[in-house]
Q: What sequence folds into this?
């Protein structure tokens, strides 16, 4: 065997080893064209079969330097099988005091992994839907922000607790 093949095979094994995420149960994103419109819900549907184990759930927000606020308000609806809906209004800090974006990333796009629910047990087996919508308002204004600039993607992630 030649040296190139061995190097390529080792690289592949290292990639597979580090790419595995054993805690991940569900992880999807919805993409926006740099603007998250008020009427755009990021919707995620998944099948849940385990009602015994505990799970952590997260919202993942990717935003860039066009994001004009230091926080983010969202309304998250968890629609359970059978019609029950759990609704939460949440606020997250998105910038440092100097205005630089929080989150991870090497470019001007940062990803923030935001807690949604911790040690959560699903009550029923079946199909669940999570809807996420932004609920930002400018200080002193009654109507909400219609076009939230700088948000490129919103994701939803479920991890099994250890």
A:
């Amino acid at each position: 065997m030649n040296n190139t093949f061995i190097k390529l095979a080792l690289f592949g094994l290292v990639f597979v080893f580090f790419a595995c995420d054993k805690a991940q149960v569900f992880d999807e994103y919805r993409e926006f064209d740099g603007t998250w419109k008020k009427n755009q819900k990021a919707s995620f549907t998944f099948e849940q079969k385990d009602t015994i184990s505990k799970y952590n759930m997260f919202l993942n927000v990717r935003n860039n330097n066009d994001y004009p606020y230091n926080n983010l308000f969202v309304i998250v609806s968890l629609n359970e099988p059978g019609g029950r809906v759990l609704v939460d209004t949440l606020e997250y800090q998105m910038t440092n005091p100097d205005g630089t974006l929080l989150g991870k990333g090497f470019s001007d796009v940062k990803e923030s992994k935001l807690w949604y629910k911790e040690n959560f047990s699903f009550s029923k087996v079946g199909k669940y839907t999570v809807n996420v919508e932004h609920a930002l308002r400018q200080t002193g204004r009654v109507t909400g922000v219609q076009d939230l600039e700088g948000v490129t993607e919103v994701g939803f992630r479920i991890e099994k607790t250890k």
